[in-house]
């Protein structure tokens, strides 16, 4: 539900806001070309410099991103959108062989979406080009001209009342969503910020502590599960009977009374907002709990968090998680807007507090960290949100920074490279085998020996022929992710090896440029006398736990083993559970809880489970 931006209720505040903008210096020491570009564009078009800086920060954090598009077709520091250049693709639930539901008790569901329909707002580059009498390519690739283009648009949107409305319109949204974007911009101006951009330029937005930002009443619809200070709407997914004893597109439940919610799963949509929301309302499609829009951070809730959505390709994970889709693409568009990061972090923080979910990478996971259920499903598991999702920045926004909590020489490390400087040479973003544009990444690539020339590790689940993993952007078989914790297997000079899929995975970790930091935690290792321990993709109960009428689910190991002497970071001990939900009537649904206990471990790029009786849990310092 949307409402116009309140005007009469905020007149006094708007006057104070204007005076605050006039009085607040945009920066104390304007050094660096990007800083000068902002100052020049602000002066040229009569835009308060801190407004220009604040808008750009909420779009791109002042980065140029090497002229590559965001996940919503935006280019440059001001996120000028050009859909013609960025292109259109399908949604990720249509790709590969993954069954989003991931329940062996039901036939696999492989829905197909209709054509992706991008919103008309994704073409602001044309408006800016007309104002500057230049071309779209220049605005996409030249950061200084891109900033001028953004300043020209803000000046055009300014109608003489206050800059709040101009900023709201710049978001490309209306009503509450535009208000939330403007609130975030002016909150950023009020507190100030500074950072080094992806191309090494220092930019500063000095704080304006006396700035008064208009306050607005809470207008989110009743019943929507959403934090304060973000805009949410209800776009319900249908729970509906279908022909042939089928139904869609989620399962009713009573979480957390019936089952504890252990994980929040981060996805990207691989499609644009309007099309994705139509899919969420299709009873023949699949489901997820929330979608977040790129340009302004608007949140739509589809499934109540008490119910189970069909989103992660693993029924055990689905039954114990909340799934959040983010408008964008894991590879084709390679960066996510700050507006979306901030809304997402507020939502995840709210859900984590509500359901007592730890704010760590064992519990806040990507779809790419969800394990295959059995050997045959590993290849088809999805890999979003991809290696360009900035987990380090995301956890900073969550108030739970990653890394830096252990002592030097610890036997456990947290992967935490410098996102901007860490630029693995991935391929396949645009077409198979084609090098991706150099981009900052959260991923650390692992080698079989302490040498960049050595082959990558083997993942026999992904590459069943025994060949090494590849640098394809979708190949997660030899890749450690930011925030994940691994046990150290060996150190040789500037190289560190971690235990990974039963192998030693080596990465360059030189003093002064560490990509992994010492950690404190617990690790799982086989009990004495066990040469190997089976590894599982789900924590299902023993057969004796199932009541009559409920089909026993096989406890099938994955094609990996945890060998004696190896150690893997523990994400905690969990009970065994299976949610039997194969009929439309929730009265027939049963939560099966067994006596078996499992330990969640960080086994490769994806999490996994081992039986608690098979391992010892020991501290790592």
State the total count of DSSP E strands.
28
- CATH domain class name of the largest domain: Mainly Alpha
Q: pLDDT under 50 segments (min length 5)?
A: 1-30
Q: What oligomeric state is this?
A: single chain
What distance lies between the first and last C-alpha atoms, to the nearest angstrom? 51 Å
How many domains would you count in the coordinates? 4
Provide the CATH topology of the largest domain. Lysozyme
Label the structural class: alpha+beta
In DSSP terms, counting alpha (H) and pi (I) runs of 4 or more, how many helices? Answer: 13
The main pleated sheet reads as:
6 strands, mixed
Known CATH architecture of the largest domain:
Orthogonal Bundle
Question: Brief overview, please?
Answer:
It is built from 13 helices and 28 strands. It has 621 residues and is an alpha+beta fold.
Could you explain the architecture of this structure?
The chain has 4 domains: 8-82 and 122-205, Lysozyme (Orthogonal Bundle), CATH 1.10.530; 230-387, 3-Layer(aba) Sandwich (Lysozyme-like); 400-518, no CATH class; 524-620, no CATH class. α3 (49-60) crosses α9 (175-191), α5 (124-132) packs across α7 and α8 crosses α9. The strands form 9 sheets. It has a 6-stranded mixed beta sheet with strand order 5-11-10-13-9-14, sandwiched between helices. It has a 5-stranded antiparallel beta sheet with strand order 20-19-18-15-21, with no helix packed on it. A 5-stranded antiparallel beta sheet has the order 27-26-25-22-28. Residues 1-30 have low confidence and may be disordered. The protein has 621 residues and is of the alpha+beta class. It is built from 13 helices and 28 strands.
């Amino acid at each position: 539900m949307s409402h116009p931006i309140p005007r009469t209720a905020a007149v006094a505040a708007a006057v104070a806001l204007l005076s605050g903008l006039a009085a607040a210096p945009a920066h104390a020491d304007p050094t660096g070309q990007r800083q000068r570009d902002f100052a020049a564009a602000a002066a040229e078009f009569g835009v308060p410099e801190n407004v220009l800086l604040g808008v750009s920060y909420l779009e791109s954090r002042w980065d140029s991103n090497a002229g590559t598009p965001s996940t919503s077709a935006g280019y440059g520091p001001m996120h000028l959108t050009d859909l013609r250049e960025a292109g259109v693709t399908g949604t990720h639930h249509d790709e590969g062989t993954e069954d989003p539901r991931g329940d062996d008790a039901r036939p696999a569901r492989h829905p197909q979406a209709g054509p992706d329909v991008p919103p008309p707002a994704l073409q602001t580059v044309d408006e800016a080009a007309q104002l500057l009498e230049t071309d779209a390519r220049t605005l996409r690739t030249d950061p200084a001209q891109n900033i001028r283009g953004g300043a020209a648009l803000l000046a055009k949107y300014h109608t003489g009342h206050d800059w709040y409305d101009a900023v709201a319109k710049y978001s490309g949204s209306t009503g509450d969503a535009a208000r939330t974007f403007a609130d975030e911009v002016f909150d950023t101006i009020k507190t100030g910020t500074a950072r080094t951009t992806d191309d090494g330029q220092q930019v500063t937005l000095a704080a304006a502590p006396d700035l008064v930002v208009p306050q607005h009443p809470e207008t989110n619809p009743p019943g929507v599960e959403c934090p304060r200070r973000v805009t949410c709407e209800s776009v319900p997914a249908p729970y509906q009977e279908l022909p042939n004893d089928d139904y869609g597109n989620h399962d009713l439940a009573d979480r957390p009374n019936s089952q504890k919610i252990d994980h929040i799963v981060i996805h990207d949509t691989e499609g644009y907002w309007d099309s994705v929301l139509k899919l969420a309302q299709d009873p023949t499609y699949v489901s997820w709990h929330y979608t977040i829009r790129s340009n302004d951070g608007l949140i739509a809730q589809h499934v109540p968090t008490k119910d189970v959505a069909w989103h992660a390709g693993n029924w055990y994970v689905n039954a114990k998680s909340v799934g959040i889709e983010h408008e964008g693409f894991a590879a084709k568009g390679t960066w996510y807007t700050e507006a979306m990061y901030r809304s997402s972090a507020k939502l995840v923080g709210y859900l984590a507090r509500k359901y007592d979910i730890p704010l760590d990478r064992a519990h806040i996971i990507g779809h790419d960290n969800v394990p295959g259920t059995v050997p045959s499903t590993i290849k088809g598991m999805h890999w979003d949100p991809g290696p360009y999702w900035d987990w380090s920045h995301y956890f900073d926004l969550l108030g739970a920074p990653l890394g830096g909590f252990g002592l030097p020489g610890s036997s456990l490390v947290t992967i935490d490279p410098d996102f901007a400087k860490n630029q693995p040479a991935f391929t396949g973003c645009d077409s198979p085998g084609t090098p991706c544009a150099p981009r900052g990444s959260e991923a650390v690539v692992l080698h079989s020996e302490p040498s960049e020339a050595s082959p990558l590790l083997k993942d026999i689940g992904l590459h069943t022929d025994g060949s090494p993993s590849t640098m394809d952007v979708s190949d997660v078989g030899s890749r450690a992710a930011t925030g994940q914790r691994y046990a150290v297997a060996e150190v040789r000079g500037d190289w560190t090896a971690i235990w990974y899929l039963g192998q030693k995975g080596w990465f360059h970790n030189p003093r002064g440029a560490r990509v992994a930091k010492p950690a404190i935690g617990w690790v799982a290792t086989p009990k004495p006398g066990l040469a190997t321990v089976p590894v599982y993709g789900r924590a299902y109960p023993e057969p004796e736990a199932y009541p009559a009428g409920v089909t026993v689910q096989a406890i099938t190991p994955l094609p990996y083993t945890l060998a004696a002497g190896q150690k893997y970071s523990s994400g905690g001990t969990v009970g065994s559970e299976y949610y039997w939900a194969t009929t439309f009537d929730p009265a027939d649904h049963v939560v099966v809880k067994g006596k078996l206990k499992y330990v969640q471990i960080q086994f490769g790029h994806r999490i996994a489970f081992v039986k608690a009786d098979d391992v010892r849990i020991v501290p790592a310092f």
